[in-house]
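Q: Give me the 3D complex with iron/sulfur cluster.
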Amino acid sequence: MKQFVWLNPVSMAMYGGPQLLEQLIKKGFEPVECQVDHIAAVREKYRQAVRGANGCVADVRCPLAVAYIKERYAPDFLEYPAIEPILLHCARELQREFSGQGTLIITTPCQSLKELGAGLKLPETEFCTFLELAAKAGISLRKKDLEESPIPPGFFQEFGDVIQVLDSRDKIDRYFSGESARGRERLLELLYCAGGCHRGDGVQGAKT
Ligand code: SF4
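A: Here is the predicted complex, encoded as structure tokens.
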């Protein structure tokens, strides 16, 4: 039975390289990649969501940010589009591609995306954080400290000045508690970890 593994771009940028791939292959994993440009597809879905919205659209790519805002602030002006995070788009493509050929492991940069993915209950598919996979498989890691996430804040920049970027829990708190000015934004870009997913709990804290 084959064990396919997809390494998310954040983990690849932080830990990737020939030594990682060699170890995974030695342990019996087959690294796989997506063929579809899900980044562009997801961005386009948001463009349509903003066009069709009456109020302000929430970026729901980060499940932890969304859960936090709903629980702590429950704003009545935000619309939450039914758009899955990019990582889940990748998982669905790969699950279809390798269905019936083995098991598929989708790595995530955080627990929150892992839980969201697991909730899909895709057949023969397991979601785990990158560090969980590395620990389980006994992979030794070399970490690069990234200044910037591979998918940095500013994902919706091309939409123009109707975007407000809240790329940390602090910024989310300041915005929703009224400490920072609220304008006429049509979309809030939301990331719980400061600066993006390279600070996620599934890629940080590795002993290297
Ligand atoms: S790593 Fe952090 S910013 Fe990225 S999706 Fe997970 S919680 Fe959100």
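A quick observation: The helical segments are 9-15, 18-26, 38-52, 63-72, 86-98, 111-118, 130-137, 169-176.
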